[in-house]
């Protein structure tokens, strides 16, 4: 356990030290530290025999929170995005355990308001936290398609007419982004 913490900590420290001098190396070190944290953590959980309970979701939650913090401190949007993606995955797992059988409309009700909240956070944070605005915008777009991903990937259920519905969602998001292009481009580009 100490070795895993030492290795991932060394990667994060190297990432922080070389952040301004070598940004690509710094990003690579942060990524390696994140992978080591998740990989060695899950390996230790498996070695201890705790993989049947809540240990894996707790590891994903801790990694997600840590990655969001590290990503915002080091100004690496991709690390923050991965941390928020961990939270999205945990939310999907909890909702999937509570509701094994759901309709397509219920999945839309569960995921689309969260997408709207992250879109609103993009607008809210674009003046002071420019990197966070980019991350929130990417999360918002991810959550827009999460009902279909939840149904297909996590539940293995395909609703009738799902390809057409996915195509309609793609067209609708492109239309929305085109109509509001003068707003959101400023939010993520400035």
From TrEMBL:
Keywords: Membrane, Transmembrane, Transmembrane helix. It comes from the Bacteria. The keyword Transmembrane applies. The chain crosses the membrane at residues 26-47, 59-92, 104-123, 135-154, 160-180. This is Uncharacterized protein.
